[in-house]
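Trying the structure run again after the queue cleared.
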Amino acid sequence: MPRDYYDVLGVAQGADEGEIKSAFRRLARQYHPDVSQEAGAEEKFKEINEAYEVLSDEDKRARYDRFGHAGVNGAGSGFGGGFGGFEEIFDIFNSAFGEQPRGRRRGPAAGRDRRVDVTIDFVEAVFGVEKEIEFQRLERCDACAGTGAGADSRPSPCGTCNGSGEVRQVQQTFLGSMVRAQTCPNCGGRGQVISNPCRNCDGSGRRRKRAVLNVKIPAGVSEGIQIQVRGDGDAGEQGAPPGNLFVVVHVKEHYYFKRQENDIVLDIGINIAQATLGDRIQVDTVDGPTDLNIPAGTQTGKVFRLRGKGIPRLRSDGSNSGRGDQLVYVQVETPTALTERQRHLFEQLAETLGRENKPQTGGRGLWSKMADFLSGEDD
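Done. Tokens:
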């Protein structure tokens, strides 16, 4: 699962535009492939660029805050975009040539994201629902309060990296002297070592536990959408930020309702008499039964639109802006099993209609003649 964009830039969720831009410039200078000698710098630079492209755009950021990566799929574009114009690129290269890139303090690792799949029915997806979910995650060890240290001991700064989590080497490049930072091999980038690990968690500071949460699923969700719950993933190491929880929603198919974007489609069958003479019938909607007027002469394929009986339009912030419609498709059903009286009536009808098959060029059509016969007005 892709990393949290706020973690990529090293900023808090509430960071303002200036903080995001400052973090992007600093990291871009550090990991630009033409400057950095670190392994994986190119991929890191792409990740930074993608995070900035989303968080610097107000609309994309709002969708990301609500739905995580699913809300901005396709937003990141690697090297191709997200710089904010030539001025931003110029500033980055000015800084690259004027300063030496600095390694970022690594420290304890942030918690990993967790994914939970939840299945809801069609009507719950229309109106929204609150679901209880159960999953396993790493939580802070109670015995050591998350420090990873055993009784009467505490973590101490790593002697190899002096607590920075990384070791540095100066290299000569075509840009001049550059500092190459690598993860400290002694502490694994944590900056601390534990001489007496906690027995309850083996020094990790975390233990796997069962978690139960209530998650609100907004009205109008569709199949596969992800809802991001910040801070409810794995706990971070030794006080580092926790990961996030991604709830992936699956929607069961309805027995007869179908979804078409924000509209609901319903197929109904009416008999030949209703189609010919017209009728007032009841049809099902997600809000309950409603009356529908069938005009005389209704043909197969006729579509009736019930305004506002569809699916709520889901905004990026989780709110709704009105509802779609329900589309009722009509199928005129030809009877296949007739009683003796019904057959007699149809035979009489056939006599009045004639048996020749002629193109219709105007005048009274088939449905008009049938309506007259069935209403007793035909001589």
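The two ends are 76 Å apart (CA to CA). Worth checking whether this holds up in the mutant runs.
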